[in-house]
Inverse folding.
């Protein structure tokens, strides 16, 4: 990879029309890779998580099984984009195989699993479709189960991570979307309130504010906060997948941008939109010129550190949503051009697996867990999903809408 300058260079001349062929080619390549993957990983076999030398793998030791919804979710994206019955059938089959996870009390990942599958399916159905009620029940049940991971002690409340009540993770911002959605579909108001409270607590501890603490930079994101498990008071910042509790883990920043944007769309509360935009400002100011970050903004050996293309793919989708929100404070054109700049990079030969021999993934140069050395400089299941989702949103010029508040 060539030399990279450490400030993102947003190409302000990019238009979807000029990029269309490259984006379509990348999406079609994704479909071919997905079809190949389905031969090796049928729906009765647990889904892989990342590639090992370009070959999909499911590690013997599973930290947490949070990715099968991205695999099936790509089938829903394929179905939405192509309308082909093959994809519809596959998407339904793989989604049904996940249904039992709605009762999973061990993880904080039910939003990852069901928002890309059951909810995509539900949104495609007409009012009188007989499948609708079953999917609605599934989403309400899964959202309610997820809401039981509630840290209620002390002053700060949140949905706690799979590590236990002491632990608040940034990626749970993506999972509270399931609580909002379940509430929209008829679950109790408590789910909406918990999701909103969770987002406020996350902003308070995990999104830096300039000047609040020595060396804090506005919009930078921390992976984890630890609280006293019994009395509930805040103890310290921490990280699992980032370099340190004081540096910005790139994927955490991406989850925050996407999660706070969706929280705004669910609630209409400007505070959440402003939070997403503060994270976006950090990304646009601190990411290298081609729009793809190193795995942690404070990793010590930059520029000789692995990239995380999955963070870039998630951010491309978040920026695309932000550009369509009329109330943004930032410049919608900048968000749009930045999303396109990222996708122009990710669809290049350097980043797709198209030109890599016998490569099974779609998007190269992702990272799962750098400190543990899992899936480093590989394809990762969520990277492929959010890449395909961003391509689909841009190619279809999808615009987001506020889906209302509970008030
Ligand atoms: N578990 C979420 C992540 O690895 O980003």
């Amino acid at each position: 990879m060539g030399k990279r300058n450490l400030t993102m260079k947003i190409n302000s001349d990019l238009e979807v029309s000029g990029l269309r062929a490259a984006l379509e080619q990348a999406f079609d390549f994704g479909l071919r890779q997905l079809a190949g993957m389905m031969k090796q990983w049928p729906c009765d076999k647990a889904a892989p998580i990342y590639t090992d030398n370009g070959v999909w793998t499911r590690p013997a030791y599973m930290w947490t099984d949070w990715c099968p919804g991205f695999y099936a979710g790509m089938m829903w994206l394929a179905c939405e984009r192509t309308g082909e019955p093959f994809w519809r059938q596959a998407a339904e089959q793989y989604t049904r195989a996940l249904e039992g996870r709605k009762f999973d009390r061990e993880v904080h990942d039910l939003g990852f699993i069901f928002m890309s599958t059951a909810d995509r399916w539900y949104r495609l159905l007409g009012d009188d479709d007989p499948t609708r009620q079953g999917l609605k029940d599934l989403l309400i049940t899964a959202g309610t189960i997820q809401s039981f991971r509630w840290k209620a002690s002390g002053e700060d409340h949140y949905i706690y991570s799979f590590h236990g009540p002491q632990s608040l993770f940034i990626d749970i911002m993506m999972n509270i979307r399931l609580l909002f959605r379940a509430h929209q579909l008829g679950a109790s108001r408590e789910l909406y309130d918990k999701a909103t409270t969770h987002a406020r607590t996350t902003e308070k501890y995990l999104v830096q504010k300039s000047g609040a603490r020595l060396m804090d930079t506005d919009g930078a994101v921390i992976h984890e906060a630890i609280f006293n498990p019994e009395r509930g008071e805040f103890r310290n910042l921490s990280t699992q997948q980032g370099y340190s509790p004081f540096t910005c883990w790139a994927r955490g920043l991406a989850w925050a941008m996407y999660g706070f944007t969706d929280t705004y769309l669910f609630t209409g509360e400007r505070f959440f939109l402003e939070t997403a935009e503060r994270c976006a400002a950090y990304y646009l100011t601190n990411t290298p010129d081609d729009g793809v970050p190193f795995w942690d903004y404070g990793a010590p050996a930059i520029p000789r550190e692995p990239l995380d293309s999955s963070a870039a793919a998630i951010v491309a989708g978040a920026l695309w949503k932000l550009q369509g929100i009329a109330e943004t404070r930032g410049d919608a054109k900048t968000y749009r051009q930045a999303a396109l700049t990222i996708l122009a990079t990710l669809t290049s030969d350097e980043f797709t697996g198209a030109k890599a021999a016998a490569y099974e993934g779609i998007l190269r140069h992702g990272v799962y867990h750098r400190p543990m050395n899992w899936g480093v400089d590989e394809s990762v299941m969520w990277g492929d999903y959010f890449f395909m989702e961003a391509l689909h949103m841009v190619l279809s010029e999808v615009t987001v809408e506020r889906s209302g508040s509970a008030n």
Remarks:
- The first helix runs from residue 16 to 40.
- The longest strand covers residues 234-238.
